[in-house]
């Protein structure tokens, strides 16, 4: 069995091969050989999920970073007797809460890794063969611990939350708090300094006679920009065009009034049969009444 490369087989084919082998070993009463094969199979063919391992490493590094910052904040506020104790308590509690969150995420990733190992060892556990816990712990520690302690490789989180770096945490807690204390001290110093009153410059008094004798200053001519001048020209031109249009309209109206009106078809028809139009009838009646009024009344003796 040790000559077989199980990477060439699928998961289902591996399961069938290993189950048949373990049944033969049990019938032959050589389960010790089965245990040794189990350890060989784990060492040679089990590949840990890369994303799970990287997330566990990332969580362990983040916990290490937060613990270091927690210690530095404690030392910083211990040395400063005038520091704000409430700020220290608030910062430390916030860091401790984040540590609990990272620990929970790391535990969940470890549980997922354990489930993956159990799935890999399923053909053996179905035949009442339990994996070697010490061997599995050694394999996991070998994959994780060197990268947590000292490794130049940078890992990005896949399934866990991204955490700030150590420099970012120091900028958030220590530098901000030190700046706050500095600004408060500077404010106290500035408030303690006396304010200096500067006297206004005294100007010599000038009599009214001398003011009257002086000639009045000439007002400087306000220069007109080219843009304003162009706008004025455009307004004047539009006014001229409007005046010319009004003149043309008035002249047309006068011409229309002077021209005699052509008789309509109705008037021509009435004239042809010897009748007058309504307007002509009205003008005749008006002339008759006027002539009647103008006749002198007879003088009575």
Structural write-up:
70% of the residues lie in helices and 0% in strands. By secondary structure, it is mostly helical. Among the domains are: 45 residues, no CATH class; 126 residues; 38 residues, no CATH class. Helix 3 runs parallel beside helix 7. The termini are far apart. About 14% of the residues have low confidence.
Q: Helical region count?
A: 11
Helix and strand pattern: HHHHHHHHHHH
Helix content: 55-70%
| Major sheet details | none
Q: In percent terms, what proportion of residues is strand?
A: under 5%
Quaternary structure annotation: single chain
Spell out the key features of this protein.
mainly alpha; about 300 residues; elongated
Topology:
Blueprint: H1 11-27, H2 31-45, H3 50-79, H4 85-120, H5 122-125, H6 133-149, H7 166-192, H8 208-213, H9 226-258, H10 265-272, H11 278-294
Helix pairs in contact: 3-4, 3-6, 3-7
